[in-house]
Specification:
There is one protein chain. The C terminus is likely disordered. The protein starts with 25 loop residues before the first helix and ends in a 6-residue tail after the last helix. It folds into 2 domains: 180 residues, 3-Layer(aba) Sandwich (Rossmann fold); 152 residues, P-loop containing nucleotide triphosphate hydrolases (Rossmann fold, 3-Layer(aba) Sandwich). Helix content is 46%, strand content 15%. Strand 3, helix 6 and strand 4 form a beta-alpha-beta unit. 37% of the residues are buried. With 358 residues, the protein is α/β, with parallel strands linked by helices. It has 15 helices and 10 strands.
């Protein structure tokens, strides 16, 4: 079966190597060492003929099937994953795939995994997620098929395997896989530390104003009126509508034509709002040439969809949303505005319509 899938390293991570990774905690130092060891292990793997002998039961099988880097957002897991990819290629054919790309495909997971195994000798899977038990079942099947094909899987996640929702809702065979086979054949490395996207000084092209109305939106409108390049003004409802009515890839393509995107009144009230905002922010963060993002909101991003206020699947989405908040801080300087009175804007952008667009 031919499955079309972009499995190349995104441009954003081309700089990521072992040499530039700066470990700040003991667990990051250990994860760096383990990642280097894994590259050595994969590079010294048996020849194709030896693998055929093992597949036929004529030789001992390899007990190593992959690495699972797990920890909070912004601790450098994807950096280490990209560094392993770059250390392996081009000598070892290696795929780099985001988990959401796998879930967009409708082919059976067995076929997806076999399509990867037909093209690659190792697979890097970024951001394994746990907000959908059905997707987790697909993911476990992919893990198992790659394991059967003797293709090492290197993965990152914010969640340990024991916390997968499949442990609660999945069939017994999947729970056994996560509890028994996964721990036996995959190295699990914890990557703890501060969120580098917040801690490291960097050039943030966008800005967010947080505080009471009308001050926050007035600051946003001032920036909008001062911007000279192609841009668009949306309310948060406009953004949600666009994310609902426009295919995701097409929407990202349209936004990438802008120099700036202004979003007024971000207020995440429910799970669907969080998921739509998550997909857009994550896509802009990973895009090689995204627009600068400017926004206003009554509350800071960390309070938009707090996991402590949710349960079940909504809590799982909120946990994943933490990554989006971290990325938002990398894209935007967040500024708090006070409640002091200020003159309202002379005319609302909603009334005038978009001043500039791509």
């Amino acid at each position: 079966m031919v499955v079309s899938m972009d499995a190349s390293l995104p441009d954003r991570f081309r700089h990521a190597t072992f040499d530039v990774y700066r470990a700040q905690t003991p667990s990051q130092q250990a994860a760096l060492r383990i990642s280097r060891d894994v590259v050595t292990t994969i590079r010294s793997r048996p020849s194709f003929a030896e693998r055929i002998r093992r597949a036929l039961g004529l030789a001992a099988t390899d007990s190593f099937h992959g690495l699972y880097l797990v920890g909070p957002v912004g601790t450098g897991k994807t950096h280490l994953l990209a560094a392993m990819y770059q250390a392996l290629t081009p000598d070892v054919a290696c795929a780099f795939v985001h988990s959401s790309d796998l879930f967009r495909h409708t082919e059976p997971p067995h076929d997806l995994a076999n399509a990867l195994a037909d093209r690659f000798d190792a697979c890097c899977l970024d951001e394994v997620e746990i907000d959908d038990p059905a997707n987790e079942v697909r993911l476990v099947r992919i893990f198992r098929t790659l394991q059967e094909r003797n293709v090492p899987l290197l993965a990152t996640s914010n969640v340990e395997p024991d916390q997968f929702l499949s442990n609660q809702f999945g069939p017994d065979r999947f729970r056994r896989f996560l509890h028994e086979q996964f721990r036996a054949h995959y190295r699990v490395a914890l990557v703890r530390g501060p969120d580098h996207r917040r801690a490291h000084a960097r050039d943030r092209p966008g800005r967010g104003w947080v505080g009471p109305e009308p001050n926050a939106s007035a600051a946003l409108q001032d920036a909008y009126e001062a911007h000279a390049g192609p841009s668009v003004w949306w309310t948060f409802d406009d953004l949600l509508t666009a994310a609902t009515d426009t295919a995701h890839e097409r929407l990202v393509e349209q936004l990438s034509r802008l120099e700036a995107l202004f979003v007024a009144g971000v207020d995440v009230a429910q799970t669907d709002d969080a998921l739509r905002l998550l997909r857009i922010v994550d896509a802009l963060y990973l895009h090689p040439d995204p627009p600068a993002l400017f926004f206003s909101a009554p509350a800071p991003p960390d309070a938009w969809f707090d996991p402590e206020a949710h349960a079940g699947v909504a809590r799982a989405v909120a946990e994943k949303f933490r990554r989006t908040v971290s990325r938002l801080h990398a894209m935007c300087e967040v500024v708090e505005v006070d409640g002091a009175s200020s003159p309202p804007p002379s005319a609302s952008p909603e009334a005038e319509g978009p001043k500039r667009s791509a």
